[in-house]
Write a structure and sequence with these properties.
The protein has nine helices and nine strands. By secondary structure, the protein is α+β, with helices and mostly antiparallel strands. It has two domains: 144 residues, Jelly Rolls, CATH 2.60.120; 45 residues. The strands form two sheets. A five-stranded antiparallel β-sheet has the order 1-2-9-4-7. The protein has a four-stranded antiparallel β-sheet with strand order 3-8-5-6. Strand 5 and strand 6 form a beta hairpin. The termini are far apart. The N terminus is likely disordered.
């Protein structure tokens, strides 16, 4: 992971506008807590093709806010690789067992384009949150939002027809259909590449 220096002499909050706006949108947000989180997040960059996995140097539990990029989470099962999710922006919570020591399916995160993000060391945040109820509630709301997004994906994948699944993305995130390689996106929404090409050709 490559850390970037802040640009020029701009105040930090002006260089992370998307993150600030997202934090301020939470029901549990307070000015003091938002200001605290702004100072805890560190600006980072991921290059296209980089991967976050389960290697020893990636073991520090980290909460990411993706401000701009394209990435996917995958798992391998019986020698096949399955895309579990795709995202362009928002909070990313890698499954590196911050609280649980239980072993599970290892998730690999692949950056499909150069990606700009902010990183929060969860050990540091946890230490501060023990004495700051407002921060604890805000972190809990971030995790709750992530859980809700996961349930929306489960709903999409359970829709019976490919048209229903593609219409889900047309309503919720149409740009990702065209930004993601068709050989990744088509299997993710359980449709053929030919069908996806036909859909794109109609647009």
């Amino acid at each position: 992971m490559k850390k970037l220096r802040l640009l020029g002499v701009l105040p930090k909050h002006l260089t992370m506008k998307a993150l600030v706006e997202k934090l301020e949108s939470f029901n549990t947000a307070t000015k003091d807590t938002v200001d605290l989180l702004i100072n805890l997040f560190v600006k980072t960059e991921f290059k296209k093709g980089w991967i976050l996995g389960d290697s020893p140097w990636q073991q520090t539990p980290t909460l990411f806010y993706i401000s701009d990029g394209l990435l996917r989470g995958t798992v391998e099962y019986e020698e096949s690789v399955y895309t579990m999710w795709l995202m362009e922006n928002g909070f990313l919570i890698p499954g590196n067992r911050f609280l649980s020591n239980r072993n599970g399916v290892t998730e690999i995160i692949e950056f499909l384009t150069d990606t700009h993000a902010y990183a929060l060391n969860l050990y540091r945040a946890d230490s501060i949150a023990k004495g700051n109820v407002s921060l604890y509630k805000m972190l809990l709301e971030i995790y709750e939002e992530n859980l809700i997004e996961g349930r929306k994906r489960e709903l999409m994948l359970r829709m019976e027809t490919a048209e229903e699944r593609i219409n889900y993305y047309k309503k919720s995130n149409p740009s990702i259909i065209y930004k993601t390689d068709k050989h990744i996106f088509a299997p993710y929404v359980r449709m053929s590449v030919r069908h996806l090409d036909r859909f794109k050709g109609e647009k």
